[in-house]
Amino acid sequence: MSWGTELWDQYDNLAIHTNKGIEFLDKYANFIRDRLAIETEYATKLRRLVKNYQPKKKEEEDNEFTSCQAFRKVLNEISDLAGQREVVAESLQLQIIQGISLLSKTLRDERKKCLSNGTYLHQNLTTQLAALDRAKRNYEKAYRDSEKAVDNYKKADMDLNLSRAEVERYKNIMTAKIQQSDDAKNEYANQLQKSNNLQQQHYHELLPEVFNRLQELDEKRTRGIREFIIGAADVESSVAPIIARCLEGMVKAGESINEKEDSYKVIERYQSGFTPPSDIPFEDLSKLDTLDSSQESHFNHVQSSHLTVKGTISANKIKKRVGIFNIFGGNKNSLTADGQKEDFSDLPPNQRRKKLQAKIGELQQKIQQETAARDGLMKMKVVYEANSSLGNPMTVEGQLNESEHKLEKLKMDLKKYQGYLEKANQIPMANNSPQANRTSSMNNGHRSSRHSNGSTEDNNYDGDFQPDDAGSLSSSSASPESGLGTSHTSLPGSGHGSAHENAMGEDAYYETEMEPLQPLGTCRALYPFEATSEGSIPMNEGEELQVIEIDQGDGWTRVRRMNNSNGWDEGFVPTSYIECTLYA
After folding, report:
1. Are 509 and 501 in contact (CB under 8 A)?
2. How far apart are CA 492 and CA 578, in angstroms?
3. How many other C-beta atoms lie within 10 A of the C-beta of residue 483?
């Protein structure tokens, strides 16, 4: 079935239908464009989402957890998904949008030609029919005139009153009119023949050809829409395997999360290596009298010196260390950029070892990089020396010397941190956790200070800077390691200042003579201990020492050893390293 035979009289409707078909094609093109814009916007927002949720630099340490690693993998897969959506958008633009635009332009041009040809055919047929109509009207008029002329001649011929000449004139008029009628009849017959032939050709040959061409264009448009819809689906199908792999990657990322492993890593990160605090000893108030008398005498002696004593007793002398938090004190480790000590001694043992190992790994990597850079410079220097046209060897000499200097400094730092790590590995767990500080209580502005024998003494501190305050503000427990530890038992008057002390300045150091404290018992070293900071003393395994101040809950005990050179030597040792026997 064809439009030329079945729709021979539907020229106007076919023109409207083909125009609507092309408009529908353009409508589908606009649909694809809108979808392309959505795909592009979706991909852009996915990439922005991935960028916004990428782990920040300060969150890098959390990447060791399996859940965080899985989330990063999910972000990578989503980024790949965004890339596939961009591929879809690009394919729709190149394969569908451009194809539709080209087809739409072709169809419009062809339709215009067909309609122009159909219009021309209609005009020719209309012209011929108009000529036929004129010939018919002329023939009808000539025929009426000829009949009238015949009637007039017959009347004249029968009228006896008319002359022969008058009758002959009517006869000539009749003959002329009959001839005109015959000529008009022949012209009408001729135009009728032409009109019939043209009409036959118009409706059976010429116009069906135009309609069939319009039918081909419309079928081409319909076929194009089918191909474009299938092509759009093929674009989706082409990226479907990659999207499926992205989804599989997300599933695998989720399956890789291990809650037990994360729990273990939490332990590794935050485990301090400290032992839990020991039991709080019983304080027998019945044994208060004897110790109070000795402490009172000791307190009076310190008051008479007008000095605020805080620090460590060494060789019959007490080293005075004034200044807030010992900022201006000696023997302090330099601080890193994050405020920690260079050897990380302010961290718990386990964390300190991890920090040192990480620092050593970082230094080793820098050494490898610097070594590779130095080797490259040396090769460049050799090439320049072999062929001076390539460059001046002296230009590399300065860089080579700088590289050697950096490499030497890195090796020195590596050796230093390896020494720190070796010391950290040799020292067993000694300190309790920082939370297990020396127990103290405040009662109406008075401090209850625990004596070595378990008794308490209330000391009212009127000075601006109190030892307890200093200890509580320190980031670590009041111990010899921090340089802030004070002995409230052996130095009951350490909370008082004097005008003489204030006049000497905040960062002044001075020494004053003091009588040695009375021993509270003896102890035996269970393990060897190396003193790593001011205030602590080394000891050998099995060595016998005197206890002059028991552990106040911070993990340190003050002891004294007999020393032939200066009479006696005392300082702090870890409580867990010794076995104490106190006097009754």
Report:
1. no
2. 25
3. 21
State both tokens at 166: 């008058």
How many residues are listed for the chain in this entry?
A: 584
What single string gives the DSSP state of each residue in 332-361? PPPB-TTS-BTT-TTS-HHHHHHHHHHHHH
Residues 6+ apart with CB under 8 A from 107: 21, 22, 25, 217, 220, 221
Tens of pLDDT, residues 457-473: 343 333 343 333 333 33
Chain segment 15-25, per-residue pLDDT in tens: 999 999 999 99
3-class SS of residue 550: coil
Q: How far is CA 269 from the centre of its chain?
A: 24
Collapsed DSSP state (helix, strand, coil) of residue 548? strand
Terminal-residue alpha carbon distance, the chain: 125
DSSP code string of 274-340:
PBPP-PPPP--GGGHHHHHHHHHHHHHHHHHTT----S-EETTEEEEE-SGGGTT-SSPPPB-TTS-
Distances (CA, A) of 422 to 38, 397, 425, 469, 531: 61, 37, 5, 35, 15
Are 307 and 508 in contact by the 8 Å Cβ rule? The answer is no
- Cβ-contact 574, 555 below 8 angstroms: yes
How many angstroms separate the Cα of 266 from the Cα of each of 59, 116, 202, 206?
Answer: 15, 83, 93, 89
At CA 225, angle to CA 221 and CA 226, rounded to 5?
Answer: 115
> How far apart are alpha carbons 417 and 364 in whole angstroms?
11
Report how many helices (DSSP H) and strands (DSSP E) the chain contains, helices first: 12, 11
Which amino acid is it at 501?
E
Per-residue pLDDT of the chain (584 residues; tens, 9 = 90+): 788 888 888 889 999 999 999 999 999 999 999 999 999 999 999 999 999 998 887 777 777 889 999 999 999 999 999 999 999 999 999 999 999 999 999 999 999 999 999 999 999 999 999 999 999 999 999 999 999 999 988 888 888 887 888 888 888 998 998 999 999 999 999 999 999 999 899 888 888 999 999 999 999 999 999 999 999 999 999 999 999 999 999 999 999 999 999 898 888 878 777 778 888 888 888 775 555 555 555 444 444 433 333 333 333 333 333 333 333 334 444 556 556 677 777 777 777 788 888 889 889 999 999 898 888 888 888 887 888 777 777 777 888 888 888 888 898 888 888 888 888 787 655 444 444 444 433 344 333 333 333 333 343 333 343 333 333 333 333 344 433 333 333 333 333 343 344 434 444 343 444 566 788 899 999 988 887 777 888 888 888 999 998 888 778 899 988 765 556 688 888 888 899 988 87
Pseudo-torsion of CA 533, 539, 540, 544, nearest 10°? -170
Q: How far apart are CA 91 and CA 86, in angstroms?
A: 9
**Cα–Cα distance measured from residue 404 to residue 398, given in angstroms and rounded to the nearest whole number:** 10
Cβ atoms of 306 and 504 closer than 8 Å: no
347 vs 467: CA distance, rounded Å: 23
